[in-house]
C-alpha cells in the first residue's frame, strides 16, 4: 500500500532541504522563546507581585489558550485563502510579531509599577497578537515540504523552537536574583529583540510564493489528497475516527505536560526548595535533551513509523511523571527524569502534528493546523485551572500524579489511531517486521 500523499513520487528518493527548513523554523524559534519566558515568569509575577491564588492564576495562565482556541483555527484557515506578493503566511508572521513585541514590553513595566490593570491589558494585547500568527507560522513548513519528509522537517522546526526556549531559560537563570524583587524588563527585552531578529531573517531568506510554486511543480502539493481520498471535502469514516483519536491524544498529553510546565517555577520553589532562577536552569536540562532528540525523532519515525515513536514517548512521559512524585526536595535523580521527559516530549511533538496534516489536502493544511491547535490549546485551557485547583486546595504533591494520569489516558487513545502514519522511506526486511501502519 502506497503511503499517503506519495502518489507517483516515492519518498525514498526525496531529500529534506535542511537549510531551508532551518530558516522556516525561525518563526517557531521566536514563538517558543516567548512562551518559555511566559510560562516561567507570568506565574511568578501573579504569585509574588499581585498575590494571585493558584486557581485564579491558573485561569490567567489559561487565557492565552482560550484566545487561541478561537483564533488559531480562524487565522490558520484565513491564511489558507490570503494571497499577497510576499505570500499567504508571511503577512501574519510579520504583523503578529510586530504587535506582540510592542505590547509585551509593557508587561514587566506593569510588574515593576505594581499596576494590575496595566498588567492585564498588556498581557491581553500580547496574547491576541501571538494568536494571530502561530497557525500561519507552523503551516509554512508543510507548505514547502513533501509529506513523507514532514516528520524530519518538524524535527528541525522543533529544534529551532527549543533553541528559542533555551535562550529564554538561560536569560531567566542568569538574570533572576536569589533575593529581592526581580526586574524582569531585561529578560523581556532580550526575548523581544530575539523575536524581531528571527522574523527579519526569515523574511529575507524565505521567498514564500516562489517556494510554494516550486513545491506544486515538483510534487503536485496543492491538489493532492490526504491520508485517504477525500470526497466533497469530507474525510472517510475510518480516517475521521483516527483524526479524532489523535486529536484526543494531543488534548490529553498537553493536559499532562502543560500542568507541569505551568506550575514548575512555583513547584520548584515551594516543594523542592530551589531559589531564584534555579528552576529555569533545571528546566533547561529537559529542553536541551529535547533539542538533541528533535531531529533523531523524525529519523526514527521514518523507520518505525510516527505512531510507534509517539507511543514510546508517551510511555516514557507517564513513567517519569510517576517517578517524580517521589521527590519532596531537590535530588540529582530529578535531573535524570527531566532529561528523559525532554526526550519523550520530542518523540511526541515531532510526529504528532505531521500525523494530523497527513490527512489534509494541501489546500487545507492551515485548517488542519487549526484543528491540531484547537485540541492542544483546549488541554492547555483546562489544565492550569484544574491542576491549579488541586495545588491550592489539596496540595502541591498532586502535580505529578495528575500529570501521570493524563499521560496514561493519552497512551490509550493513541493506541486507537490507524491513519496518518507515513510509510518509512527506507524499508529493509528487518524494518518491515515493525508492521508500520499506513
Question: Overview of this structure, please?
Answer:
By secondary structure, the protein is an all-alpha fold. The chain starts with 17 loop residues before the first helix and ends in a 6-residue tail after the last helix. It has helices at residues 18-24, 26-49, 54-81, 90-104, 106-113, 116-143, 150-175, 185-205, 208-219, 237-270, 278-304, 306-324, 332-358, 365-393, 399-414, 429-432. Helix 7 (150-175) runs antiparallel to helix 11. It is built from 16 helices and no strands.
Question: Key terms for this structure?
Answer:
single chain; 438 residues; mainly alpha; Growth Hormone, Chain: A; 0% strand; disordered N terminus
List the helices and strands and how they pair.
Elements: H1 18-24, H2 26-49, H3 54-81, H4 90-104, H5 106-113, H6 116-143, H7 150-175, H8 185-205, H9 208-219, H10 237-270, H11 278-304, H12 306-324, H13 332-358, H14 365-393, H15 399-414, H16 429-432
Helix pairs in contact: 1-7, 2-3, 2-7, 2-8, 2-10, 3-6, 3-14, 4-6, 4-8, 5-6, 6-14, 7-8, 7-11, 7-13, 10-11, 10-13, 10-14, 10-15, 11-12, 11-13, 12-13, 12-15
Amino acid at each position: 500500500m502506497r503511503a499517503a500523499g506519495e502518489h507517483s513520487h516515492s519518498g525514498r528518493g526525496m531529500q529534506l532541504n535542511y537549510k531551508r527548513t532551518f530558516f522556516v523554523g525561525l518563526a517557531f524559534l521566536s514563538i517558543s522563546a516567548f512562551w518559555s519566558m511566559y510560562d516561567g515568569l507570568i506565574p511568578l509575577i501573579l504569585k509574588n507581585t499581585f498575590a494571585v491564588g493558584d486557581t485564579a492564576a491558573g485561569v490567567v495562565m489559561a487565557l492565552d489558550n482560550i484566545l487561541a482556541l478561537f483564533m488559531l483555527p480562524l487565522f490558520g484557515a484565513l491564511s489558507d485563502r490570503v494571497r499577497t506578493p510576499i505570500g499567504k503566511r508571511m503577512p501574519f508572521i510579520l504583523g503578529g510579531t510586530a504587535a506582540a513585541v510592542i505590547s509585551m514590553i509593557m508587561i514587566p513595566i506593569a510588574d515593576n509599577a505594581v499596576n494590575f490593570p496595566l498588567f492585564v491589558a498588556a498581557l491581553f494585547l500580547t496574547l491576541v497578537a501571538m494568536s494571530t500568527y502561530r497557525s500561519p507560522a507552523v503551516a509554512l513548513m508543510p507548505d514547502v515540504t513533501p509529506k513523507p519528509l514532514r516528520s524530519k522537517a518538524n524535527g528541525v522546526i522543533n529544534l529551532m523552537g527549543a533553541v528559542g526556549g533555551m535562550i529564554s531559560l538561560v536569560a531567566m537563570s542568569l538574570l533572576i536574583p536569589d533575593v529581592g524583587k526581580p526586574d524582569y524588563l531585561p529578560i523581556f527585552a532580550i526575548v523581544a529583540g530575539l523575536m524581531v531578529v528571527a522574523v527579519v531573517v526569515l523574511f529575507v531568506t524565505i521567498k514564500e510564493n516562489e517556494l510554494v510554486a516550486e513545491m506544486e511543480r515538483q510534487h503536485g502539493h496543492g491538489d493532492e489528497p490526504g491520508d485517504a481520498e477525500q470526497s466533497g471535502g469530507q474525510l472517510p469514516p475510518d480516517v475521521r475516527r483516527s483524526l479524532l483519536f489523535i486529536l484526543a491524544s494531543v488534548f490529553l498529553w498537553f493536559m499532562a505536560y502543560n500542568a507541569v510546565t505551568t506550575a514548575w517555577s512555583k513547584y520548584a520553589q515551594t516543594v523542592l526548595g530551589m531559589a531564584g532562577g534555579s528552576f529555569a536552569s533545571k528546566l533547561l536540562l529537559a529542553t536541551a535533551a529535547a533539542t538533541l532528540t528533535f531531529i533523531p525523532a523524525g529519523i526514527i519515525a521514518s523507520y518505525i513509523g510516527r505512531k510507534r515513536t509517539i507511543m514510546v514517548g508517551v510511555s516514557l512521559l507517564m513513567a517519569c511523571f510517576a517517578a517524580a512524585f517521589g521527590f519532596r526536595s531537590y535530588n540529582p535523580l530529578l535531573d535524570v527524569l527531566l532529561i528523559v521527559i525532554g526526550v519523550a516530549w520530542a518523540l511526541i511533538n515531532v510526529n504528532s502534528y505531521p500525523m494530523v496534516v497527513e490527512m489534509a489536502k494541501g489546500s487545507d493544511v492551515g485548517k488542519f493546523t487549526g484543528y491540531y491547535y484547537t485540541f492542544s490549546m483546549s488541554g492547555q485551557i483546562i489544565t492550569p485551572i484544574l491542576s491549579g485547583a488541586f495545588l491550592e486546595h489539596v496540595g502541591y504533591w498532586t502535580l505529578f500524579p495528575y500529570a501521570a494520569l493524563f499521560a496514561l489516558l493519552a497512551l490509550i487513545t493513541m493506541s486507537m489511531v490507524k491513519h496518518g502514519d507515513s510509510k518509512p522511506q527506507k524499508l529493509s526486511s528487518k524494518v518491515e517486521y515493525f508492521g508500520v501502519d499506513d
